[in-house]
UniProtKB/TrEMBL annotation, chain A:
It comes from Paenibacillus mellifer. The keyword Iron does not apply. It is a multi-pass membrane protein. This is ABC transporter permease. It holds the Pfam family BPD_transp_1_N. One of its GO terms (cellular component) is plasma membrane. The chain crosses the membrane at residues 12-30, 99-119, 131-155, 175-199, 237-263, 283-309. Its main location: membrane. CDD domains: TM_PBP2. One of its GO terms (biological process) is transmembrane transport.
Automatic annotation (TrEMBL), chain B:
The chain crosses the membrane at residues 55-76, 121-144, 156-176, 238-261, 288-306. It comes from the Bacteria. This is ABC transporter permease. Residues 117-306 form the ABC transmembrane type-1 domain. The keyword Transport applies. The lineage of its organism: Bacteria, Bacillati, Bacillota, Bacilli, Bacillales. It is found in: Cell membrane. Keywords: Cell membrane, Membrane, Transmembrane, Transmembrane helix, Transport. GO terms for cellular component: plasma membrane. It holds the Pfam family BPD_transp_1. CDD domains: TM_PBP2 (cd06261).
Length: 323, 338
């Protein structure tokens, strides 16, 4: 287990390292490089060179990269070009807002999708099963932001049940009830997208387990069907779902740029789009790296959890025993 | 996670060609008809099964309509998609000869939908094609040669899968500018990985086959084996994957255009129309409905076609035995990894 962990961790570090290189090179490959944007326009050539030197942009690219990485490792994400604000101050509150939104959507999805998918696996091709399949087909083919716009038109502008956008109403920043009302529409949109896949995962995973020999044995020795499903099948069926949860973890942080934009939710995804239009490269780099780190950690976590929960998994390498 | 099941193409397994093993033989014809009938080729067999799938055929029909509409757009409408006419903004459907009305700048909505179809389909098909080329080459090299080549390429795939795709797309378009060619390039660059994995898996299986050994024994070059034998036997799974990719690319294009980083005015795209529509939601409700509906229908159609091809390739499928079409479709759908 330890050997596997170390190898997996080293791999993750390597992947993150490669991602930082790719991001850095991409930004420096931009026509005119970051220099053009970073420096104030209308400077005299001497002042231009001076400022370039001040910001370290006259150094060769590898040197700049090492400096940037060094700052990054010390937790310094850099400064915005405009106003010279620390990127971290901009980023962290946004991550919190995204976590609220995505966490709510994720919870709702799990609460609906798992029981529904499991129920469907016991009643294959029934009405409920077909409804679920219809939803997932729709969820895969529909642009989520369009669904959001339709909901805004119908439930917000039309019926006035929910606020149109933003996270708080003016003057009600502390109110939980107000926040809840603002959450309803974006969470609905996000959940539909998630539901499409999670019902399918839960159902497929259960079906696979229900075909196993030990389930037949349990049935043959007269265990009640209820007990077969909940005691014997469910616990094994949850294993692959844990993996998928781990792989989807980055969504919690990366957020849904689209949904946040539709509902004007001040999360990280919207920050990214705003900063992309403003060409604030240091913010873009920071967000890309933060998200990538979470992605890599998420898949690492999924692997580890999988190994812990499922004793059948032999972790590669010679002589390593299962957890 | 849920990689697509590798379907053995009919070419490699001749027993997959025997249709309907479960069906009770009709005593009259079988003996008489069989010797005279030429066995169907893989494409004909594929079509035979595909054409019995109502969802797939509907998808194909809808797709053809959209393709024809996109090609013949200038002949189907008398308006210019970018022509601003401030005399008649926000007309309702059917007014003043505008089939679906006009938008906030008096542009004909139907015309704009038609021209948007061009953009979406162009991007969808180009991205799928480019991904197939990149993915097949990398997958083929990895699967055929193995060793360090495989390790390097698969690490690259890992890295690519760890990069948040939408963020990378936005980043590149923000840096290089929102042009169609950059959009196609970055979308292809972020979506070839599934095809590379698929081709690699197929190659790992196929390269141990006896006919490959035979080909090598009679001196066929590596390139010959890769292209003539292995890649041809991976054709069908690649097609399925590529079809589904068309839909994904259309969705990505609309998302990027909606965010303002994709297609730029005066050009038009469904995503861009939606972003306009959201701004003028209070004035005209229907503007937001049409473009989204177009995206939904096209992507559904493409997905139906893709699923139809996959089902047609599945030797376990039996076209004549259907206990309820929907149930059958559900069964197929649930088997797929998508």
């Amino acid at each position: 287990m330890t050997e596997y962990l170390i190898r997996r961790l080293l791999q993750s570090v390597l992947v993150i390292f490669l991602i930082t290189i790719v991001t850095f090179l991409l930004i420096h490959a931009a026509p005119g490089g970051p220099t053009q944007v970073m420096l104030a326009p209308g400077l005299s050539p001497e002042a231009f060179e001076q400022q370039k030197r001040n910001m370290g942009l006259d150094q060769p690219i590898p040197v700049q990269y090492v400096r940037w990485i060094g700052d990054l490792l010390q937790g310094d994400l850099g400064y915005t070009f405009k106003n010279h604000l620390p990127v971290g101050d901009l980023l962290w509150p946004r991550i919190g807002n995204t976590l609220i939104l995505m966490g709510a959507a994720w919870l709702l999805t799990l609460v609906i999708a798992l029981p529904w998918g499991i129920y469907n696996s016991t009643k294959e091709y029934g009405l409920s099963d077909q409804t679920a399949s219809f939803i997932s087909y729709l969820g895969f083919a529909m642009p989520t932001f369009w669904f959001g716009i339709l909901l805004q038109q119908w439930l917000s502008l039309g019926l006035d049940w929910f606020p149109l956008s933003d996270m708080h109403s003016r003057g009600k920043e502390g109110s939980i009830a107000d926040l809840f009302m603002h959450l309803v529409l974006p969470v609905t949109v996000l959940s539909l997208g998630f539901l499409a896949s999670y019902i399918k995962y839960a159902r497929a995973s259960m079906l696979e387990v229900l075909e196993q020999d030990y389930i037949r044995t349990a049935r043959a020795k007269g265990v009640k069907e209820r007990k077969v499903v909940f005691r014997h099948a469910l616990r094994n069926a949850l294993i692959p779902i844990i993996t998928i949860l781990g792989l989807d973890l980055p969504l919690l942080v990366g957020g849904a740029a689209l949904t946040e934009n539709v509902f004007n939710w001040p999360g990280m995804g919207r920050l990214y789009v705003e900063m992309a239009t403003a060409r604030e490269y240091s913010v873009l780099m920071a967000i890309t790296i933060v998200t990538a780190v979470v992605v890599v950690l998420g898949s690492l976590l999924a692997d580890i959890l999988y190994a812990i929960v499922d004793p059948r998994v032999k972790l590669g390498g010679k002589g390593t025993k299962a957890a | 996670m849920s990689d697509m099941k590798v379907t053995i193409s009919p070419r490699t397994s001749p027993d997959a060609l025997t249709p309907e093993p479960n069906q009770a033989p009709k005593l009259k014809d079988t003996t008489a008809a069989l010797p005279a009938k030429k066995p169907l080729g893989p494409w004909a067999l594929l079509w035979k099964k595909f054409s019995h799938n109502p969802y797939a055929m509907t998808g194909l029909g809808v797709m053809l309509i959209f393709i024809l509409a996109a090609i013949f757009a200038p002949w189907l409408t008398k308006y210019d998609p970018a022509k601003i006419d401030m005399m008649f903004p926000n007309l309702p459907a059917g007014a003043e000869g505008h089939l679906l009305g006009t938008d906030e700048l008096g542009r004909d909505v139907f015309t704009r939908l038609l021209y948007s179809a061009r953009v979406s389909l162009l991007i969808g098909f180009s991205v799928a094609f480019a991904s197939v080329v990149i993915g097949s080459i990398i997958g083929a090299l990895s699967g055929y040669f193995g060793g360090w080549i495989d390790t390097v390429f698969m690490r690259i795939v890992d890295v690519m899968n760890s990069v948040p795709t939408l963020f990378l797309n936005i980043l590149v378009l923000a840096i290089f500018g929102s042009e169609i060619k950059y959009m196609i390039m970055i979308l292809a660059f972020t979506s070839w990985m599934s095809i590379a994995r698929l081709v690699r898996g197929n190659f790992l299986q196929l390269r141990e086959m006896q006919y490959v050994e035979a080909a090598r024994a009679i001196g066929v070059s590596n390139t010959g084996i890769i292209f003539r034998h292995l890649l041809r036997n991976s054709t069908f799974p690649i097609i399925v994957n590529a079809t589904l990719m068309v839909g994904a690319a259309i969705l990505s294009e609309s998302a990027l255009s909606y965010l303002g980083l994709g297609i730029q005015p005066p050009a038009t795209s469904w995503g861009l129309m939606l972003s306009n529509a959201q701004e003028f939601m209070l004035v005209d409700k229907m503007q937001a409905v049409y473009p989204g509906l177009c995206i939904l229908i096209v992507v559904l159609a493409v997905n139906f076609i893709g699923d139809g091809i996959r089902d047609a390739l599945d030797p376990r499928q039996n076209i004549n035995k259907s206990r309820g079409r929907l149930a059958k479709w559900r069964r197929n759908f649930s088997k797929s990894g998508n």
